[in-house]
Amino acid sequence: MEKKNLDWSNLSFAYMPTDYRFVTNFKDGKWDEGELTKDDKVVISECAGVLQYSQSCFEGMKAYTTEDGRIVTFRPDLNAERFENSCRRLEMPVYPKEKFVEAVLKTIKANEAYVPPYGSGATLYIRPYMFGSGPVIGVKPADEYQFRILTTPVGPYFKGGMKGIKIRVSDYDRAAPRGTGHIKAGLNYAMSLYPIVKAHEDGFNENMYLDAATRTKVEETGGANFLFVTKDGTVVTPKSNTILPSVTRRSLMYVAEHILGLKTEEREVYFTEVKDFAECGVCGTAAVISPVASVTSKDGVIEFPYGKDEMGPTIKKLYDTLTGIQMGRIDPPEGWIYEIK
Ligand SMILES: *Cc1c(COP(=O)(O)O)cnc(C)c1O
């Protein structure tokens, strides 16, 4: 297989169509076989459920070239499970997790030429998504759905690289108690666009959302979970039913406890505690983990001892270990790495 002639080291985090995408349709109560296609256009009813009532959900994952030249992806079974949960909560037909994983592997294989080479800093981003394609006008779930997987080669998510990002506490809420914060619904992102555009205008990279009920506890950013490190080296992550269960965060917490031998806590984190942490990072598939330099709220600016110009030592160890596993330099825990053959 010959790689595409792309400037791998200078890719941005933007969409670039690749040769193949996976498509399957749900009709008359069942999914068809599904196929890889070169057609990057979607044709649906003008009255499709997704267009009228935003019935859609998605996943995000990556494929990597390892040091020894294998193409791998990371824990797709967890994305598959989460996708099932998203579908259920949105009254969409579940796409079974075994078939999800199979389709992801097949789509990566078909686009092998776009998986960036080892050491380029780039990866192949994989975007599985489902939407109501059948017409609805009265409020109800659509009768027909499409599930697709597109891939696109991407560079690093935050252009600043390893410099800490600036975050502010948002005046808006991301997720209501008993709402949809725990699933990967497109609508969670639609409503976060206004606050993120405002944050960017005011010179911040991301919003920190607090729990909507009491506005005293840290939840997450618009698309990444928080990790904190206490001054005595414990890794802490917020626990809440309205946080999206990040695969990256769950993996980093495992790495912290079982590989690095650190103390870990998943618990409620009050905003008043944030000033006492030594390190702060946000994590997700797109950026793995980005150090946070500061958090600004109405009460002032919290600057972490680490994060302004570099990652703190614990976050750096977490980052190096997880990316080492993904790039094949460190032996993975069982079942984490799926090789594309
Ligand atoms: C996707 C997502 C994350 C990150 O999850 P990963 O599985 O690590 O990519 C975090 N928060 C929200 C709201 C998300 O949608």
Structural notes for this entry:
- The protein is of the alpha+beta class and 341 residues long.
- It has 7 helices and 17 strands.
- It has helices spanning 49-53, 76-89, 97-110, 186-190, 193-201, 247-259, 313-326; strands at residues 21-27, 30-31, 35-37, 56-58, 61-65, 71-74, 123-132, 145-154, 165-169, 206-208, 225-229, 235-238, 264-267, 279-284, 288-297, 300-303, 337-340.
- Strands 1, 2, 3, 4, 5, 6, 7, 8 and 17 form a 9-stranded antiparallel sheet that branches. Strands 9, 10, 11, 12, 13, 14, 15 and 16 form an 8-stranded mixed sheet that branches.
- The protein is globular, with a radius of gyration of 20 Å.
- The termini are close together.
- Pyridoxal-5'-phosphate (PLP) binds at residues 60, 184, 220, 223-225, 244, 246-249, 284-285.
Gist of the model:
The protein has helices at residues 49-53, 76-89, 97-110, 186-190, 193-201, 247-259, 313-326; strands at 21-27, 30-31, 35-37, 56-58, 61-65, 71-74, 123-132, 145-154, 165-169, 206-208, 225-229, 235-238, 264-267, 279-284, 288-297, 300-303, 337-340. With 341 residues, the chain is of the alpha+beta class.
Could you tell me which ligands this complex binds, including any ions or cofactors?
A: pyridoxal-5'-phosphate
- Care to count the β-strands? 17
β-sheet strand percentage: 25-35%
Structural class: alpha+beta
**What percent of residues adopt helix (DSSP H or I)?**
10-25%
List keywords for this structure.
globular; 341 residues; 7 helices; single chain; 8-stranded mixed beta sheet; alpha+beta
